[in-house]
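Re: Re: ligand-bound prediction request (bumping)

Still looking for help on this. To restate: I need the protein modeled with NAP bound, output as structure tokens. Inputs repeated here so nobody has to scroll up.
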Amino acid sequence: MTEAKTALIAGAGGLTGTFCLQMLLQHPAYNAVIALVRKPLPLQHPKLQQIRVDFDNLQTVPAADDVFCCLGTTIKKAGSQENFRKVDYGYVVGVARAALASGAKRFLLVSSMGAGAKSGIFYSRVKGETEDAVMQLPYEAVHIFRPSLLLGNRQEHRLGESLAMAAFKVVGFVMVGPLAKYRGILASDVAKAMVAVAQQNTTGNHIYLSDEIQQIASSVAD
Ligand SMILES: NC(=O)c1ccc[n+]([C@@H]2O[C@H](COP(=O)([O-])OP(=O)(O)OC[C@H]3O[C@@H](n4cnc5c(N)ncnc54)[C@H](OP(=O)(O)O)[C@@H]3O)[C@@H](O)[C@H]2O)c1
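Reply:
Sorry for the wait, this slipped through. Here it is.
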């Protein structure tokens, strides 16, 4: 019998993170789930430990096997490119470094479609730089998920995303073959794929495009 694992999650209060946290709490592979939060989540569970942290000064985090990072913001919400970078690069790499120092083996990151350190688009460039920094860390495995538009019910209204979601509802079904990676994807499916991949015990760096994430999620029984 394989030993029960501990999961560490950052961004557990967000759209993808909420699903990821629920799945981790229900998954038999984990007997403990530690959520790094800036404000407590309205949730109690015997497996769950919430730890309030200051992501600007993240020194140490508890030991865990698998780290799930669903943390991120938008340039609009952050207020500036600099603040966006602080979160989407600084906080993510900070969590990755701290968890590795505490003995974590696997790091699973929600990045974004189009991420690339050489991208001409600031958002995609930051995402790419973050990916590169995380992949350079000596984890047993780093799994990067690059979803297209995330679908799901958000508390907060994001006009651009709402319009894109409406467009996907109209044309999404014709986006097949090479276009499949541009289709919107349920945030719950991204979370499902992350949790599934963490059980594979593969090593090295892996990047999953949106259509591949969809395939992994579809192969997982509910
Ligand atoms: N939206 C899309 O269509 C889309 C598409 C592709 C990729 N992505 C990327 O996918 C990832 C997950 O997206 P999502 O929409 O699921 O996330 P989300 O709902 O926006 O949630 C983001 C999470 O990050 C945390 N966070 C944000 N700013 C923070 C800060 N300054 N300090 C500490 N924590 C902070 C939030 O904490 P609180 O819970 O405390 O607020 C929340 O838990 C992000 O990296 C995003 O860039 C998004």
